[in-house]
TrEMBL record:
Descriptive protein name: CBS domain-containing protein
PANTHER family in the record: CBS DOMAIN-CONTAINING PROTEIN, CBS DOMAIN-CONTAINING PROTEIN CBSX3, MITOCHONDRIAL
Keyword Magnesium: no
Keywords assigned by UniProt, alphabetized: CBS domain
CBS domain boundaries: 23-81, 112-167
Organism whose genome encodes this protein: hydrothermal vent metagenome
Keyword Transport tagged: no
InterPro entries: CBS_dom (IPR000644), CBS_dom_sf (IPR046342), Diverse_CBS-Domain (IPR051257)
Pfam families: CBS
């Protein structure tokens, strides 16, 4: 007979799990002064959904999501019969593309979510869920005491962990 999970069990679980056990590492990062095209290439090449932005001392100063980039500047569809792979000014994203010069016309530091809320590796899953719910965010950066990026915790990490409880 299966044990029924009680409200108390769930609370105990969420306060017993540290975010360092679920976070992704290493995290894709760029400097505030980098080009927006560098960020898009990370989204494509590393299949990342978020990129953390750091300053010259490697401290977290912002974050940007692929979803937000799409809102700022949607890619253009590749028309049938058009050959684009050889053009270095084009960044291919599936069946769409970005013009590198257009992306680089934006200033990353102005677009990023500046000084995002973050957690430390020893914060609990309860802390993460509470923060993400309050912010309406799908992820939260994890930093050390010097605000250097150590990981990234996403909703999908939490869902996968919860799904594992049913196995």
């Amino acid at each position: 007979m299966e044990k029924k999970i009680t409200n108390y069990d769930i609370r105990e679980l969420f306060v017993s799990i540290k975010v360092k056990a679920l976070m992704t590492k290493p995290v894709p990062t760029v400097y505030e002064t980098d080009d927006l095209s560098d960020v898009e290439e990370i989204f494509i090449d590393q299949h990342a959904s978020h990129v953390c932005i750091i300053d010259s001392s490697h401290k977290l100063t912002g974050i940007i999501s692929q979803k937000y980039l799409y809102k700022i500047r949607s890619p253009q569809k590749i028309l049938p019969g058009r050959i684009m792979e050889t053009n270095k000014d084009i960044i291919i994203d599936g069946d769409s593309f970005y013009d590198r010069k257009t992306l680089n016309g934006y200033i990353l530091k102005d677009l990023m979510d500046k000084i995002p809320d973050y957690l430390h590796p020893d914060h609990t899953l309860k802390d993460a869920i509470t923060l993400m719910s309050r912010l309406g965010s799908s992820c939260v950066p994890i930093v050390d005491e010097k605000c250097k990026v150590k990981g990234l915790l996403k909703e999908s990490h939490i869902v996968k962990m919860l799904a594992g409880l049913f196995d």
